[in-house]
């Protein structure tokens, strides 16, 4: 039973929130090795915040993606929030315009670099966005998600150029960037929602 005033989220948005909640501890643990140990908490809290902005059941994918963007932009601590929010603004815009979400990921890659300054190889979410953008995939399909996961995994071999983990240098080698794992997870959930 929804509490008074609360809107019931679309099923996939609920899945999105629940999946980030269940990934909270694992991502925090990875961020303990490579940062300050809070990225899972930051992303789970941001995901939860999207629910207060959601238009509810029957909302189209673009509206749900926009709720995610707003939740991440406005309700998070940590550097991941604004950058995820920015990325989701671009992905939502692609959904709204009826172009492939892969086009949105390409715009997201450009926007995140413009604002955050990270380039591919700096051990950030840019490595995931870049992997999808350059995968040749025309839709956000299984191949595109495979590229996203490979992009996240590839950060294991990178020492950090941006963000908090840049202070740790080579100590992070062997550990994937938790923000990149979170972005790959987010894109996989969007693809599962039927967004292409
Ligand atoms: P904080 O370091 O402020 O605690 P979070 O833990 O919320 O931030 O998020 C850290 C993640 O944010 C990193 O794992 C990385 O993927 C991402 N990140 C940090 N700085 C940048 C940047 N300049 N560009 C892209 N992604 C970044
Ligand atoms: Mg952190
Ligand atoms: Mg922090």
Helix/strand layout:
Blueprint: H1 11-34, H2 39-53, H3 61-74, H4 80-97, H5 101-116, H6 126-133, H7 142-154, H8 178-192
Helix pairs in contact: 1-2, 1-8, 2-3, 3-4, 4-5, 5-6, 6-7, 6-8, 7-8
The chain binds adenosine-5'-diphosphate (ADP) and magnesium ion (2 copies).
Residues 36, 38, 78 line the site of one magnesium ion (MG).
Protein name: DAK2 domain-containing protein
Domain DhaL: 7-192
Task: Describe what this molecule looks like in 3D.
This protein is 63% helix and 0% strand. The protein has eight helices and no strands. Residues 1-6 have low confidence and may be disordered. α1 (11-34) packs antiparallel against α8 (178-192) and α7 packs antiparallel against α8 (178-192). The longest helix has 24 residues, at 11-34. It is mostly helical. Adenosine-5'-diphosphate is lined by residues 31, 35-36, 38-39, 42, 78-80, 83, 112, 116-118, 124-126, 162-164, 177-180. This is DAK2 domain-containing protein. Residues 7-192 form the DhaL domain.
Helix proportion: 55-70%
Class from helix and strand fractions: mainly alpha
Query: Could you name the CATH topology?
Result: Serine Threonine Protein Phosphatase 5, Tetratricopeptide repeat
- How many discrete domains? 1
List each distinct ligand once.
Answer: adenosine-5'-diphosphate, magnesium ion
* Overall body shape: globular
What is the C-level CATH assignment?
Mainly Alpha
> What is the chain-wise order of helices and strands?
HHHHHHHH
Query: What's the alpha carbon Rg, rounded to whole Å?
Result: 16 Å
Low-confidence sequence ranges: 1-6
Which CATH architecture? Alpha Horseshoe
What count of helical segments does DSSP give? Answer: 8
What is the residue-mean pLDDT, rounded to a whole number?
90
Relative strand content: under 5%
The main β sheet shows up as: none
Query: At the fourth CATH level, what is the homologous superfamily?
Result: DhaL domain
Number of strands: 0
């Amino acid at each position: 039973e929804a509490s008074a005033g609360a809107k019931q989220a679309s099923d996939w948005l609920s899945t999105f929130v629940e999946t980030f909640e269940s990934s909270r501890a694992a991502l925090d643990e990875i961020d303990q090795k490579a940062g300050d140990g809070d990225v899972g908490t930051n992303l789970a809290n941001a995901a939860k915040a999207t629910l207060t902005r959601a238009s509810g059941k029957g909302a189209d994918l673009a509206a749900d993606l926009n709720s995610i963007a707003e939740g991440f932009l406005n309700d998070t601590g940590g550097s991941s929030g604004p950058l995820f929010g920015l990325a989701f603004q671009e992905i939502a815009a692609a959904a709204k315009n009826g172009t492939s979400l892969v086009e949105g990921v390409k715009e997201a890659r450009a926007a995140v670099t413009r604002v955050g300054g990270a380039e591919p190889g700096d051990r950030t979410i840019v490595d995931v966005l870049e992997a999808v953008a350059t995968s040749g995939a025309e839709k956000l399909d299984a191949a595109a998600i495979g590229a996203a996961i490979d992009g996240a995994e590839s950060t294991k071999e990178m020492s950090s150029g941006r963000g908090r983990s840049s202070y740790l240098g080579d100590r992070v080698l062997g550990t994937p960037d938790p923000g990149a794992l979170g972005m790959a997870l987010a894109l996989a959930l969007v693809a599962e929602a039927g967004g292409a």
